Amino acid sequence: MISEKETTSLSKFLSLVLRHQPETIDIKLDEQGWVTVDELLRKAQAHGKNISPDVLNHIVETNAKKRFAFDDTGKKIRANQGHSVEVELGYEPQTPPDILYHGTGRQSVESILKTGLEKRSRQHVHLSSDIDTAVKVGQRHGKPVILTVAAGTMHLQGHKFYLSENKVWLTDFVPTDFIGKHSS
């Protein structure tokens, strides 16, 4: 099919246009973040990225983080979460596990413990249900530190949680009262 390097490069390109800057290739995402596959492929090609339907399927199916999804018809595609552009993903509130995890770099811990976990330029704070995923996320930011989030208690106090298609837990904000440091 295509090399791992090409797959990674195209996956990053899709993240850019489906999560952050659709205007890069002149596409418009609908209110739920969808764009037709035909338009995506046509506009990508017009901007120098020649992606075949088979290659697109390969990227969606093999992406380790399951960042992208096709609709039920297979005619539309979107990013599952992580948008910095305003989209309504249509996720219904869910009851989270009692504890969720957030991986970050050591340099961010002090700030997080003072102000809480903020979504910043994204639409939600991202949390995982397992420590291994949190470690991988934290490693992207330097020496990883794993924070625990008392999600069950937050939920009981009215905070909403959503579960994305790729099993990432999403919430709007995590106040400091619900954050602890995971001890390994």
Question: Could you characterize what this model shows?
Answer:
- The chain is an alpha+beta fold and 184 residues long.
- The chain is built from 6 helices and 11 strands.
- A 3-stranded antiparallel sheet has the order 1-3-2.
- A hairpin with a 5-residue loop joins strand 8 (162-163) and strand 9.
- Helix 1 packs across helix 3 (53-62).
- The longest helix has 17 residues, at 4-20.
- The protein is globular and about 50 Å long.
- It starts with a helix and ends with a strand.
Name some characteristics of this structure.
6 helices, three-stranded antiparallel sheet, 11 strands, 20% strand, alpha+beta
Q: Unreliable segments (pLDDT under 50, ≥5 consecutive)?
A: none
Mean of the pLDDT scores?
A: 91
Could you give the order of strands across the largest sheet?
1-3-2
Could you give a short account of the major beta sheet? 3 strands, antiparallel
Strand content: 15-25%
Shape: globular
Helix and strand string, N-terminal first? Answer: HEHHEEEHEEHEHEEEE
Fraction in helix: 25-40%
Number of helices: 6
Radius of gyration: 18 Å
Query: How many beta-strand runs?
Result: 11
Short description:
This protein has 184 residues and is an alpha+beta fold. It contains six helices and eleven strands.
